[in-house]
Amino acid sequence: MHKELAGDDLGLGRRQRARRRLTDPAAPTLLLATCLVVAQVASSDVLAWATFAGLAGYSLSGSV
Amino acid sequence: MLASPVWRASKRQGFVLTLFAAGLVAGGLTTATGAWLVSGLFQPLPLTVRCTALLVLAVAAALQDMGWLRLTLPQARRQIPQTLFRQGLTRAALQFGFELGTGLRTYLPSALPHLLLGAVVLLGQDPRFAAAAGAGFGLGRALLPLVWHASRNAEWWDDQLTLRSRYLASTSALAGVVCVATVVASAVGR
């Protein structure tokens, strides 16, 4: 799978590659994981709840 | 992947996506308000009981999403009707977003929304937490069309989602357990 993904990026410019990395379907999961770490470090219960909920919402990706 | 006629609209896509996201947040807040009202009924239960129940639910949800458990979870087994789109794109985007945001009107292919609902009912007696859960759920659902739109390559994005769907489901399942552990730890520490 990784080879397939890497091969797919060949022939793209730097900006296009960066766009693909930033808009990868896994990117929101990484963002939410970061938010969870921030919530724990900052002891922010509200952010922890929002992150949990964001994850639940994003887990429905692909369904309408 | 199922294609939504709203956020795949060819005209005024940014505007339609904004309305759709606003509808999602409003829908999430509506369900969270209902869950918050119900949470009052569970407040008399000892905190230890509520926390233990939520941790058990979190493990069950993770096993379900990783395919190791096959429970039939409550959900509306239908798509939102196409008749909604006869009312014009603006109203359809808002209403479609709202109905998806409630999490009550269509399929739920993951157990995490059920877990979130359980968490609000069991530990969400503070209205700020319920509001964060509702708005967060709507924004989380909005992430898909927003990132998809930003990719500027729908076909590539759909392929990536298909390729990574199993990995994303497992990651989300484990992250859900971590989230619940965080919420439980903060409830116990208060």
What does this structure look like?
- With 64 residues, chain A is an all-alpha fold.
- Helix content of chain A is 72%, strand content 0%.
- In chain A, helix 3 runs antiparallel to helix 4.
- The model of chain A has no long low-confidence stretch (mean pLDDT 82).
- Classes of the chains: A mainly alpha (64), B mainly alpha (190).
Unreliable runs of chain B, pLDDT <50, ≥5 residues? none
Count of helices of chain B? Answer: 6
Number of helices of chain A: 4
For the record, give the distance between the C-alpha atoms at the N and C termini of chain A, rounded to a whole number: 26 Å
- How would you describe the oligomerization state of the chains in this entry? heterodimer
**What proportion strand of chain A?**
under 5%
Mean pLDDT of chain A: 82
Biggest interface found: A-B, 40 and 64 residues
Provide the number of structural domains of chain B.
1
Instruction: State the end-to-end CA separation of chain B.
Output: 43 Å
The coarse overall form of chain A would be elongated
**Strand tally of chain A:** 0
Q: Overall 3D geometry of chain B? A: globular
Q: Roughly how many Å is the radius of gyration of chain A? A: 15 Å
List keywords for this structure.
heterodimer, A: 64 residues, mainly alpha, B: 190 residues, 72% helix
Provide a quick synopsis of the model.
Chain A is an all-alpha fold and 64 residues long. Chain A contains four helices and no strands. The longest helix of chain B is centred in the last third of the chain and has 36 residues.
Question: What does the secondary structure layout of this molecule look like, with pairings?
Answer:
The complex is a heterodimer of chains A (about 60) and B (about 190).
Chain A: H1 2-9, H2 14-22, H3 27-41, H4 45-58
Helix pairs in contact in A: 3-4
Chain B: H1 13-42, H2 47-65, H3 89-102, H4 112-123, H5 127-151, H6 154-189
Helix pairs in contact in B: 1-3, 1-4, 1-5, 2-4, 2-6, 4-6
